[in-house]
Structures are given as C-alpha cells and as structure tokens.
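tool=predict chain=A
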Amino acid sequence: MLSWPTIFPTPVSLVSIVLPKLSDSVSTTELRVSSSTKSTYATKPRSVKSLNLRLDSNPVFILPVSRCDNRSVNLPEMLSISFFSFQCARGSVESIAIDFLTVSFFPAQAVGESTKKPLLYYDNNLSGTFVLLRMMDEFQCHSLVFSSSATVYGAAENMPITEDTPVGAGITNAYGRTKYMIEEILRDFYQSQTLEESTTDWSITILRYFNPVGSHPSGKIGEDPNGIPNNLMPYVAQVAIGRREHLTVFGSDYNTADGTGVRDYLHVMDLADGHLAAMDYMKQKKSGIFTFNLGTGNGYSVLDMVKAMGKACGHEIKYVVGNRRQGDIATCFADANLAKNEMGWVASRDLDEMCRDLWCWQTQNPNGFAGQPCESQ
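tool=predict ok
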C-alpha cells in the first residue's frame, strides 16, 4: 500500500497533488511555483526532514514527513508535484511526470463563505476541474480520486445518508453545488471515454467527505486557515489556545437534541486512509467510476464538539449563541457501509482522538505555521 503523509489544503490556488511511486529518500527541499514558470526539482537521496511547498513565495503548507505513524516515509529522488493556478494559463502548470494517479483537492471549501462569494467558488472549483482533466488526459494520467462532499445531498430527509440518497436537489450553498456539478462533469467525462472504445483505462473515485477534523497525532501536520477560520473546529481550537475570544454558535433552534447543528465528524487520518483505500481499490478494478461516503455514521452537535475540545485542552471553551448561518442544515451523518464492504475502509478514530490530535497540533503551533520556517536539515 502506498504511504503518504496527510495533506491539509489551505485557501490558496492549490488544486491537485500528483503522487508518484515512493522509492529513495530525499533531503529537505523547497518547491516554488510561479504564474509564469515551470519548475521541478531533484535531490540526492538523503533522509528527509520536511518538505516546504510554496506558491509564488507564499507558504502553501509544510509537510514534516520524516516520521509518520512511527515509520520512515520515503520519497522519490525525483518528485514532481502538480499545481494548477486557476487564473493562469497552461504555462503555469507544474509538469506531470507521474505513473500513478492524481488526488484532487480544491481551495474554495467553506459553506458559509460560499454563500457570500459564489462566483469565487464556481470559478475556482469548476475552472480548475476543466484544466485538471485536460492536463491529465494530455499526460496520460488516467486515475483520479476526487474530494467531493456530503453537501451534494442537500437537506436530506432520511438519516443516515447512503450513496443512493438523491443528490443535487435542496443544496443550500454554492460550495455544495460546485461539488455536485463536478461529480456530474466527471461522470460525463468518463462516459465520453467509453463511446468509441469498448474499454477505457480511466478510473475515477468520488469520495464524499462528511466533516474531517483533527491533525496528525505527532502534532507536526495540521490545518492552518488563512484569516478567520470558516470551519468549526479550527475556530474552536483557536479559541482554546487564546487567539480568539469566543466561538459564535450559529443557531440553537434546530430540531436536534440540543438545538445546534449535527454533523458526522471524522478524523483526518481516517480520511487519509480512505484515499489510500480508494487508490488500492482502483488498482484492483483497473477502470470505472466509483462513489463512496467517508464518515463515521455518528452525528455530533456543535455543542458536543465544543465540550469534547474543552476536555482535550483542559478548560471550557467560551461561546455565544448567534443566529442561524445561511446555507446550514440541521442534521447530516453518513452510512459508510459501502466503503467498508467494497474498499475495506472503516473510520477507526473516535471523537476524543480527533480533539486530542487537533489540540496537539494547536499547542505546537499556537500561531499556525507563520514564523516557523522548515529546518534545513
């Protein structure tokens, strides 16, 4: 099985990371990508401490990859990573020298923000998909894992949500609509590859995330939002560490046990395992288009999450109750049995682990990655 450290996309023009096969270790290095140049890098095999990726000299994220899950992580001597900047022409695309697959993330990924900036979401997410598919086809990279979302189900009436639950209707925000549209684009694209030939080597897996939270248990890799966090748990963590005064809970009058919204939160390491399982699954299936929910099957309210984070950090999290936020729904949690039965994937980490690992990262990075450059050795 391919091993790779967890990746946390941040709100920058980062669309895809093309993962090559792992072989020799490499030294710490920095990759810079600009809007007008293409660049790859090669290093001599040495033990790796961390990989600092940058876009136009602004930090994208830092991957400390020397040890993950108490085992060495090896990287190839020549590592090519593909960045797509939506506003740039083809010349800005980092070269794809890959024989495995593409994992596609999108930078615009907050429900609340998408209701305020819908054009940003439609432009980033849809335009990036068109560029990505064209470049993959040109470079004969025909395996794709797409990061979709439970928001494609809209305000589903029945819980838990299965992959057969209707999608596309009742979606309450632009973020969810872009995810639904991209799923349809991928299905149309896949079907187009089978029109003239009886078989195709294209393999696409759509993973419908529910609500990933947490960090790598080492505390070395975590989510560092730019500006005010749009998602619940990064905001709660910043309140816990003292960067923000209090959390605003958007609505306390939903039809739930405590009146606050209920979601299916899963550990980001379980999410990473889901990607690895999808990659193995596609290698076995050779071709096809597949869809899976990734969730725990358990629903936790906003106040449940606040209390759990208070337990992890050792003190109460201050919060105030505000009005409902446009685009939010009352309840959403998964039935992930299809992923279990087909891919052998099960979310194994509980709520305490999610909050403990998030707090571990936050305490090691109280102000995020700002002012903490990668070590050179």
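The longest strand covers residues 143-149. Residues 118-138 form the longest helix (21 residues).
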